[in-house]
Amino acid sequence: MVISFEALHKDIWARTGRLKVGEKIARTPLLLPVINPHIQLITPSEMQQMGVEALITNAYIFSKSVEFRKSALEKGLHEVLGFDGIIMTDSGAFQQSVYGDVAFSNTETVEFQRAIGSEIIVPMDIATPPDRDYEGAREELSTTMERITEAMTIIDDGHLAAPVQGGIFPDLRADAAVRVNETGATFCPIGAVVPLMENYRYKELVQVVLAAKQRLNPSSCIHLFGAGHPAMFALAAAMGCDVFDSAAYALYAREGRYMTTSGSLKLNELQELPCACQVCRTHTVEELKKSPDKERLLAMHNLSVSLAEIARIRQAIIDGTLWEVVDERCRSHPRLLEGYRELLSRSSDLVERDRVSKRRFFYRGDESCMRTEVIRYHSACLRFVPGATCHIAMNEMVSGDTDTVVQFKPPFGIYPSEMAETFPIGQSEIPAWDEPMVKAGLQGVRRYIEYNTETQFSISCPQRWISTLHESLKGLEDRYVCI
Ligand SMILES: [Zn+2]
């Protein structure tokens, strides 16, 4: 296979892995900076020195460029751009729709991308806008699928990407994913999500991305097309997106906007440069504001922040601490928080592909109660078989005359002493008990009692939590006594 993907570590639905394109290899999650040959605030070779392993440029721009068309056709993109990493091209579908250039057809764009030496080639798909109705979205998806099939007859050596469309309708996205799998493509961009991100519609973003990702072949590399703000990389990675692209680093720089992992700030309003990158540590904020090189320096900062966030996410996936990064980032905007909560509401689906053991579980408030580790533990603890009588010790008071004694740790629930050192009980840090975590833990207890129908339970509970206990175990009064 010319384009292949190998996952190395997993966390939630995220993976770190190796994207192999021909003989070239890039680490994922991967950020592709977008290059406009006419406006290079940072050159591709400078990017390579910053650690960029792959980039994306636009076939339409090269095709229409007086300055670059001929040289790209003669020398190829790598020589023209001075970059020997992986180069992907976008078809120009967006420009075609804006300029109404019907002459730039599907066949023409894929042949042109091939001719200029692109290594990941995108057909002329239709980016269905969020306001398209169901029937319209379905028809546009059909057209996209026809174009992928047509492009496959021209690019038949595995360099073709197969975009997943379907508008805001999860069932169409799921259908698109199944059909994309059938094409055999291994690089799958999830398209037309930019308007959702621009309008902070993160809840719908999560719905459509999960619908697609759930059906896409697990060995395919997934590109979230147009996702360029570092504040949302962690959320997207958690959904299983492996590749992002950033035009934002340059677009924001031109608008004087300074990216951070918790949103963007206006340079003009800053008194300090709160960042560890080279630019921020070698300039004062006044020097940066007055610099004739301001746009370029801001672009370098923006790209550095984005690349650092990708590295942070890769490390978090290796450690199994990605939920913590998602939690941190998604609190920077209420609408991102909505997206995060939507993701958490799908934990029972996410848990199937999440890893069993992680480095640690840090409790970060009530959202933590919905995490996959908690959902998994509530099922996993059912494997521990109690005797005819079982005591659940929520406090230090232990009944001496039961067959079995188990402890309680919120938000997980019961655990026998032999599980005290294993994940997550032994590797979880929780602050003083709060209502959400105790309720979540008692949901685990409830399942345990319901599951073990032959056992009679006694529970010792701190006074403070007795009413929560009774409320959580409502309907099971004949199965336990509180002592
Ligand atoms: Zn900086």
Provide a brief overview of the structure.
The chain has 483 residues and is α/β, with parallel strands linked by helices. It is built from 21 helices and 18 strands. It folds into two domains: 345 residues, Queuine tRNA-ribosyltransferase-like (TIM Barrel), CATH 3.20.20; 127 residues, Rossmann fold (3-Layer(aba) Sandwich).
Describe this structure in words.
By secondary structure, this protein is of the alpha/beta class. It has two domains: 3-347, Queuine tRNA-ribosyltransferase-like (TIM Barrel); 356-482, 3-Layer(aba) Sandwich (Rossmann fold), CATH 3.40.50. It is 42% helix and 17% strand. A six-stranded parallel beta sheet has the order 6-5-4-9-8-7. The chain has a five-stranded mixed beta sheet with strand order 15-14-13-17-18. The longest helix is centred in the middle third of the chain and has 26 residues, at 294-319. It is elongated. The model has no long low-confidence stretch (mean pLDDT 96). The structure holds zinc ion.
Question: What structural keywords apply?
Answer:
TIM Barrel, 2 domains, binds zinc ion, 21 helices, six-stranded parallel β-sheet, five-stranded mixed β-sheet, 483 residues, 18 strands
